[in-house]
Amino acid sequence: MEDGQETVRIDRWLWAIRVFKTRVDSTQACKGSKVRVNDQPIKASSKIRIGDLVQIKKNGITRVLYVSGLIEKRVGSAKVHEYCTDRTPASELIKAQERAENSKLQNKYQGKGKGRPTKKDRRSLKRFVDYEF
């Protein structure tokens, strides 16, 4: 606990422990019912205490964080574990890993005729257009 605080705004805490990149993003997630504290929907200005369970829906998975410390200022990623404990179920982590693998596979193979032409395609098009009949 920093400076003897007993409560901290949820949007500031989520931003400080690097769940969201900006405070505006964390506020929008709270407004959009993506954040719950102790299974209750919460406003961005609501206060959290040590011992609360925070559930965050982000990128298709639900992360569960246990509040083990309060902080209002953003910290480096190495110090985040001092302020929260990740209790996300293994099934959610597996789901996130599968999504990442599927997106890599989809991006790796680009079907014929989709997207920007390759250098080889451009050269063959140029030969076709420049060809005189």
- Report strand order across the widest sheet: 3-2-5-6-7
Low-confidence stretches: none
CATH architecture field: Roll
**Main beta-sheet strand count, sense and barrel state:** 5 strands, antiparallel
* Residue-averaged pLDDT: 86
Shape: elongated
Query: First CA to last CA: what distance?
Result: 81 Å
Counting helices, strands and paired strands, the structural category is: alpha+beta
Number of helices, where a helix is a run of at least 4 consecutive DSSP H or I residues: 4
Approximately how much helix is present in the residues? 25-40%
> In the residues, how many domains can be counted?
1
The CATH homologous superfamily = RNA-binding S4 domain
Summarize this entry quickly.
By secondary structure, the chain is of the alpha+beta class. Helices cover 35% and strands 19% of the residues. The chain has helices at residues 10-16, 23-31, 90-108, 119-130, and strands spanning 8-9, 35-37, 40-41, 47-48, 53-58, 61-67, 84-86.
Describe what this molecule looks like in 3D.
This protein is an alpha+beta fold and 133 residues long. The protein has one domain (8-108): Structural Genomics Hypothetical 15.5 Kd Protein In mrcA-pckA Intergenic Region, Chain A, CATH 3.10.290.10. 35% of the residues lie in helices and 19% in strands. It is built from 4 helices and 7 strands. It has helices spanning 10-16, 23-31, 90-108, 119-130; strands at residues 8-9, 35-37, 40-41, 47-48, 53-58, 61-67, 84-86. The strands form 2 sheets. Strands 3-2-5-6-7 form a 5-stranded antiparallel β-sheet. It has a two-stranded antiparallel sheet with strand order 1-4. The mean pLDDT is 86.
